[in-house]
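INPUT
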Amino acid sequence: MMGGKTDRKLIVNGKRLDGRGLDDMRPLTIEAHVLNKADGSAYVEWGKNKVLAAVYGPRECVPRHDSDPYRAVVRCRYSMAPFCSLEEHGRAGPNRRAIELSKVIREAFQNVVITELFPKTAIDIFIEILQSDGGTRCAGLVAASVALADAGIPMRDLVSAISVGKADGQIVVDLFKDEDNFGESDVPIAFAHRNNDILLFQMDGKLTKDEVKTALEKAKNAAVKIHALQVEALKKVYERQAQQNVQ
Amino acid sequence: MADIIVPGETVAKAGGRPVGNTYREGDSMRSAVVGLYKEGDDRIIPLQGPYLPAIGDFVIGVVQDVRFTSYTMNINSPYNGSLSSKATRDELKLGDIISAVVAAIDESKNITLEEPRRLIGGEIVSISSVKVPRVIGKKNSMVNMIIDSTKSEVQVGRNGRIWIKGGNSALAAMAILKIETEAHTSGLTDRINAFLKAEMEKNNKV
Amino acid sequence: MVDILNEIKRDYVRDVVKRGKRIDERKFDEYRKITVETGIIPNAEGSAKVKLGNSQVLVGVKLDIGIPYKDRPTEGIFSTSSELLPLASPTFEPGPPSAQSIELARVVDRGIRSSGAIDMNSLFIEENKVWAIFTDVYALDHDGNLIDAAALAGMAALLSCRMPKYEDGKIIRTESSGKLPVSEKVATCTFAKINGSIVLDPSFDEEVAMDCRLTLSTTPTHLCASQKGGSGAITEKELLDCLDTAFRKGSELRALLKD
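OUTPUT
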């Protein structure tokens, strides 16, 4: 989140500390259907982030009093592994940030999952951050979206997410950890692809209205690229299976 | 050849005939699943998905709970099936495998089963319920081909559970799993036919 | 929990909004009556109580000596937590903080922290010793929009917060060395999207009916924190329109905060 002041320059000659241009995303790879037991799953590597998402459901909702007689309840657990950070060893169990992120991620998916088809059941989303380097909630959203589709859970759309922000006075796309900590603003956003509805929006730092507009524009463009990778990952599952059986 | 489409993708105009596994938004129909679709199809064939029971479905279930007047059956669905103890002469135990038919589904998704038959011995192959139509084939053509080749008894539950007994049951199981992975491809019937023939010849030579 | 009465209220509110009105007859961009009272808990270094319509939130600020974080050795600590007291609403159960409570605390925290209202370096005392500011939000009465009430109370409590004296390694709380330096007045505005329309400062019934909410914290010139909550979606246009309203309403809210 918002960090301390630093004399460090984050952008030099139009290039960011990791060599990227202002609008460049870190390399992003997505693989769907990576686990056997889960109904759906996906593994994402985004820059140095390594994220695994799994979906179980629709399944019986326990405890019973959590269930809804008219629709499935969507539950989400965003969790960071104790070894995920370059720095300190993290404590096991959800901290307050993880609980907040679990909530806002859940809400993004509640918008697209067609829950009325499965009353009284639960759809459980698990996001495990195995290695973190900034933008983990977006990586988690991208992975979970693919995992939900992989599980065959009816949904209105795939959800794509990206963090945009401000570093050294410039709007940049896909913040990595140092930019998140030492930059002037971090804005994680999630879009529904078909209509660019905003399903997750958080912000800290300082932005003028014009900067907000620019940030939204750049985020939308990035989301389109991310969506294409999500679709490719889902299609690849079937090509992969077909290849395995060509003897 | 059908195309793979993903959730959110437009399939057809909303005014036209309804297409299965889509949802309506504004004036278009959009896919709700990852699946196969060719223009003119009446449904998107999902490549994966949960089993939602429909009345008349033939299912294979496992006794999950024994209650005073009924049995709770696990039918590989988010919803369990309920079998009245009056419907069966035998006394069923936890873990027993039975075939049954879905008789009724109420608004709370309570599923009532009838016509129970105990399945003794044999083995159960579990596949994704969305692939079951492929295993059955048009007018049972695919499953009959497997039965003829392997001489096994095969009962296909619409819920993705398939019971195989006797004959070359291992081969039958292999054929079914092969159909599951290649369900979305064309020319499958011929390929399975060739596969069964080749395997049977291998066995005969031994 | 599915409350049958809530479903009925929900439809009624949505219906009224569709016809261009609100059930309490406010304009779409109108706040309920707001009162801000500071210094009500003299034991705390800073305190304020805000009434926003029928919602009531009390914020207490305590200062303590803390050990700075290793990667920020010259900066003080700023920590916010919240309690949705069971007495505030039949919907609040006793127990560990819910996701809603944690979200409230973190949203209030971000608004203040991001704006730079508190200069964290000014809290440095000496090596390994900094001031730690603990802001505790106590929701007393829930009739909707606890976020804005809490954020306003938090801001008011900090603006009126006294610095205890620090001498010879001890805190002398009965003496003060002045006020806590606060350089910005952050205004936090929460909007609810109901049946396609956006309303400011949702009441409890409006929150039951809403599709989602958007909270925007602003200084006179910048957006400094935001949180979208709930499962509905907002469009880019709605976000930017809310931002315009938030800047406009910000000056009204700031006027309620005494220096």
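end of record. The interface with chain B takes residues 39-40, 57-60, 69, 112, 114, 117-121, 149-158, 192-194, 231, 234-235, 237-238, 241-242, 244-245 of chain A (CB under 8 Å).
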